[in-house]
Amino acid sequence: MQNYHATTRICIITILFGMAFTSVLSQDLDSVRQSREGYRGFAGDGPRLINGHSIDAPVKGALQLVISHRFGPLNDPFYTFFGMNQASFRFGFDYGVSKKLAVGIGRSSGLGGIAPPPTFDLYAKYKLLTQSRGSNEMPVSISILTAAAIDTERWPRDGISRTFADRMYYTEQLLITRKFGERLLFQLTPTVIHRNLVTYPDQSNTLYALGLGGRLKITRRLALTAEYYFNKPHAIGAGYFNPLAFGVDVVTMGHVFQIQLTNTMGLIEPQFIGRTEADFLLGTQAIRLGFNFSRVFGGNNKSEK
After folding, report:
1. Which of 6, 95, 106, 119 is buried most deeply by CB count within 10 Å?
2. Comparing C-alpha atoms, which of 31, 75, 56 is closest to residue 225?
3. What CATH class does 2-304 carry?
4. How far apart are CA 87 and CA 281, in angstroms?
5. Which tens digits make up the pLDDT trace of 255-294?
6. Alpha-carbon distance 115 to 27, whole Å?
7. Measured between alpha carbons, how far is 155 from 175 in angstroms, rounded to an integer?
8. What pLDDT score was predicted for residue 2?
9. Cβ atoms 259, 250 nearer than 8 A
10. Distance from CA of residue 183 to its chain's centroid?
């Protein structure tokens, strides 16, 4: 298992540096043109569809601030003020390295639960294909995402020590999207997550999940979103559920504000895929209010369109 841990870390580092090196070599006049267009993607929407990544990313030279919150269940609105007595939080930055490559780093309040240890994550997102028409027609856009996260809980805990490798979580995703006109987008997200340490014996270290999501533009500045991640049966363990979410995106000049109802407290893939502890079908006992806020600095933000 330790050999697997070492190999995985080497692969992550190789992929990150390999994509960065490839992007630098591939610069041309088109990159200058696109860097002036601001935010690339589906009409300048946010870096997250709801919980999971969208195919959008900041353009070359643009820095994006991303703040996310998920609150407690809605079933006791007066005592908990719609769950706001409980909250998970992530603060992060994304940066456009080139017209195809974006990288990001963030800190969240942990891998699930009410008062979990802080978790740091980093990712790289690389655009492989872009949907287009004409002689070089491409029916879909595809990006590849690779990410790593580290749990910073203080050990030993309960007299038990853990290794550095036990703290690590790895995510690999394909983000496959298709736009239908200028209003409708559908996204398919095959996902593999490896957790070097799990809590219970009925949980798998490696999870295979399939994300399904979409965004429907109502106006230039308002959109409806939905997202669901299906986990391989019996892999996530008893007491855990698939994450489901519905949201509303509000696009303003330079900002994207996303409001959602979801059954997860998680803010990165290892948190909400395999660690969602509430069944959305239970209603207000499980459903939580949340939001994502993003702001792009530089690059003539395209969300103004």
Report:
1. 119
2. 56
3. mainly beta
4. 21
5. 899 999 999 999 999 999 988 999 999 998 899 999 999 9
6. 45
7. 36
8. 43
9. yes
10. 22
Sign of CA dihedral 262, 265, 271, 276: negative
Task: Give the alpha-carbon dihedral of 219, 221, 222, 225, to 10 degrees.
Answer: 110
What does each C-alpha distance from 173 to 66, 132, 161 come to in angstroms? 20, 22, 31
Task: Locate 188 and state its tokens.
Answer: 């398919």
Residue 127: is its pLDDT beyond 80?
A: yes
